[in-house]
Write a structure and sequence with these properties.
It is built from seven helices and no strands. About 65% of the residues lie in helices and about 0% in strands. With about 180 residues, the protein is mostly helical.
């Protein structure tokens, strides 16, 4: 009987705690140097890491060069494939590191506009357009290297890649998820 009497009190306390958390989803983020980016995101952008930008490719059977290199032995890559995938990876890094750094700098500039109370409708519009353009270039860069990497792999390697990455359905067109092997 005591349990039944305590249940409403427990439910009231837990619902109050839950609503307090949901009304403060950004609490603690105000201490970030760039409010819109975590330190991990800043580090990832500056290092040229994908951060999920290429999920449209990755989850539809177009592996990226980084993961293919990591799994190279298990994919039975040929020496030529290793050389080509490494070349793609290096080219991708050369392209994405400056773009990621540029994006971090643009986000910092937007942060500065707001924190200094210098933001205007025009500066906001200009800043957001620049950020959007950089985000688009960065995403395109990651995606195009997934496309190029997939073109280097045989169907069996594509299937093995999907298995090693734990994907249940790597793509809609084939078991390997890559319809047009080159």
């Amino acid at each position: 009987m005591k349990c039944l009497l305590l249940l409403p009190t427990f439910l009231l306390l837990t619902s109050n705690a839950a609503s307090a958390q949901s009304s403060q989803p950004y609490a603690g983020l105000e201490g970030r140097s760039i409010k819109t980016l975590s330190q991990q995101q800043v580090d990832d952008l500056r290092a040229g890491r994908g951060m999920g930008l290429a999920l449209a490719a990755e989850l539809n059977g177009y592996p990226g060069p980084s993961h293919v290199l990591e799994l190279g032995d298990r994919l039975d890559l040929t020496a030529d494939q290793r050389v080509e995938v490494r070349r793609l990876f290096d080219a991708m890094k050369q392209e994405t590191v400056p773009l990621g750094s540029k994006l971090v700098d643009q986000e910092r500039a937007l942060e500065d506009l707001f924190s200094s109370r210098a933001v205007t409708s025009e500066s906001l519009k200009t800043s957001i357009a620049a950020i959007a353009a950089t985000q688009g270039k960065l995403r395109e860069s990651h995606l195009k290297y997934h496309l190029a990497t997939a073109a280097l792999l045989a169907p069996g390697q594509m299937q093995r890649y999907a298995e090693l990455r734990g994907y249940q359905n790597p793509g809609p067109d084939t078991p390997a998820g890559h319809k047009h092997h080159h």
